[in-house]
Specification:
The chain is an alpha+beta fold. The protein has one domain (about 50-165). The chain contains 6 helices and 3 strands. It is flat, with a radius of gyration of 22 Å. The two termini are about 40 Å apart. The mean pLDDT is about 85.
Length: about 170
């Protein structure tokens, strides 16, 4: 690809370090930039897949101990995580379509309803599944599941092993 004209930057100079193997993608990003407003935010650290796997090991043991299926145990844990819900007011006739579409995203994507003060509307509580969790939310989920397991007498990782797992996110 031959570059005949460099993009003209006014008011903002953005320097991005790029690996040589990614230079094509970086060029496409710059040349596809269009007029408009942009917001640049700090990237959140993604959760560790090890912690996700460990959560499911404990969920399996908890479900066996309490006689509930794994999905029920997982969903109850997800409901207890702060900052992972939205409440939207929806026309009554659209409630079921919204719920079906939201819950189609995965087993942790939950919906509940409650009355709205607006006539002909229902408030729908939308809960995000753990696949969207940032480091803090995944830590809270892991700690909640570990606490549940301990309360049932289920052996868990040692505190130092849990700290190592959490440190992998940092």
């Amino acid at each position: 690809m031959k570059i005949t004209e460099r993009p003209r930057m006014e008011g903002l100079n953005l320097i991005i370090k790029v690996n040589p193997s990614d230079i094509g993608e970086a060029r496409r990003f710059v040349f596809d930039w269009s007029d408009g407003e942009y917001q640049i935010t700090k990237a959140k650290k993604k959760r560790s897949l090890d912690s996700n796997a460990y959560c499911w090991v404990l969920i399996d043991k908890i479900s066996a101990a309490v006689g509930a299926d794994k999905i029920t145990v997982y969903r109850e844990a997800v409901r207890n995580i702060a900052g992972n819900t939205e409440i939207v007011c929806v026309k009554d006739e659209a409630v079921q379509k919204l719920r079906d579409g939201w819950e189609h995203n995965g087993i942790g994507w939950l919906t509940e309803t409650m009355p709205s003060k607006l006539e002909g509307c229902t408030n729908v509580i939308l809960t995000y599944g753990s696949s969207t969790y940032d480091q803090a939310q995944m830590t809270a989920l892991l700690e909640h599941i570990v606490d549940e397991a301990k309360a049932l007498g289920i052996e868990t990782l040692t505190p130092s092993e849990l700290e190592r797992m959490k440190a992998d996110w940092k």
